[in-house]
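Recap for those who missed Tuesday's class. We walked through two folding examples back to back. For each one, the amino acid string is listed first and its predicted structure tokens come directly after. Nothing is annotated here on purpose, so try labeling regions yourself before you check the end of the notes.
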Amino acid sequence: MTYTGFALNYLNKYEIGEAGIVDPSTGKITPPDKLYELAEGIQSVDLKNDEDSSDYSYYADRGGKETNISTVSTSYAFKGHRRYAEDDAQAFIRERLAKTGQDRVVYFKHTEPDGRILSGNATLSGIVHGGGDAGERGNFESTITFNGLPDDSKSNTVEVTSVTLNKTTTSIAVGANETLTASVLPADGTDKTITFTTSDEQIATVTSAGKVTGVKAGTATINASSKNGKTASCTVTVTGA
């Protein structure tokens, strides 16, 4: 993803999951298969880099000093409203409320608007899963602190920016078929997978390859969607045989 200029905060993406597996020989962390996006109900994120430093003065500094940063601790304080749902980030964090030690260790991933990624195992603290005035939404808070220095890398992912179909409207008879062709930009997109769907299978069906078949007279919309949500559509009119 390429982004320039000022970015709104919601363009940052935060994900959490079970603790990653650490390779004892390299220290490299393998992330879990499933991550939950921490977004629903979240109103603010306070990012802090706490640093420990030491000052040194040398004759060559001519009365000045040098500062050495010895440690860095990166943390994210999330605040918002408690949203109840199964299989989501807030539920994942709530499950660890009464746990300690390694049971509070999770995998955390922060994707910045320009595609840079901070990731690694982290510790959950300060979990608040309710409270507040009677007529208000319950509070939610949690702080996530990386354990040690996180992996800091620039993503090589090239996002799909547009999807188009070779036709926006077409007409076929009942029992006949026609194949729609999808084009994706940019040409070097990392994942150019396209999923075809129909608005009404009783009117027209579509295969994973874009082959449309008329079922009965009427109108249906065929959608072609990329993995990152870019779509194109074609209105199909099915006429009687």
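Example two. Treat it independently of the first, because the proteins are unrelated.
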Amino acid sequence: MALDATGGRRSGSVKRADALTRVIAGRVAQLRKEAGMDQAELGERMAALRPSWSRSTVVKLENLNREQVSVADWLALAAVLNVPPPMLLTDPRTTDPVPLPTGDVSAWGALLWLVGSSASGGGSDVGAYHDSADVVDAIRAVHDAIMELGRTTTRASGRSAQEARERNDERHRAALERLARELIRLDGAGVRRPAMDEQVVELIYRRADELGVQWFPELQPTADGEAYYRRSPSASDEG
């Protein structure tokens, strides 16, 4: 006989989910239903990414008869359910604790740890954690700044065209200053800059010149097929 994660006896032939897998199983069932998917559809979509999956795999997971979920399965589930991977491990709308290997942590604390904003994981070297978290924070800031540069207000309720342009300029100036600052920060951490195509680089330099943003780091465009950031028609908002 063997003992499961809760201390109850079970036969050696029946596998029961460990504590963290139980959390994932519950979140999968909840998110699947919210997405309007039945177990067969989830199994079919998972099979496209993870061939070993099927409806029976989903049933086994949700019935807590799957002992563990691999990292590859966890990421595939997040992709199929169209949620950030951390949301399969925690739901900040609840008060349910998350059973991390170092002990139970609140849903809020677990989510912040998973996205690099809090040292809730229980590691002893807090300084090393913050060094890594700083890199995550800088990458997030670079991404947000580049996305902001691609947004242009073309219509604004109660605002004139001149006011809309001034608002764009204000937002873009702040984004450029943040982008320059965070790229230099990443340089100092030895992190490679994100790959941008020629159109994105041209946009950054053009707007920096138009808005008088100085000390901009030198940027080198990447071939289109290798670029993470590619120029597309500007999105507009109503704000």
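Answers for example two:
The longest strand covers residues 98-100.
The chain has a mean pLDDT of 85.
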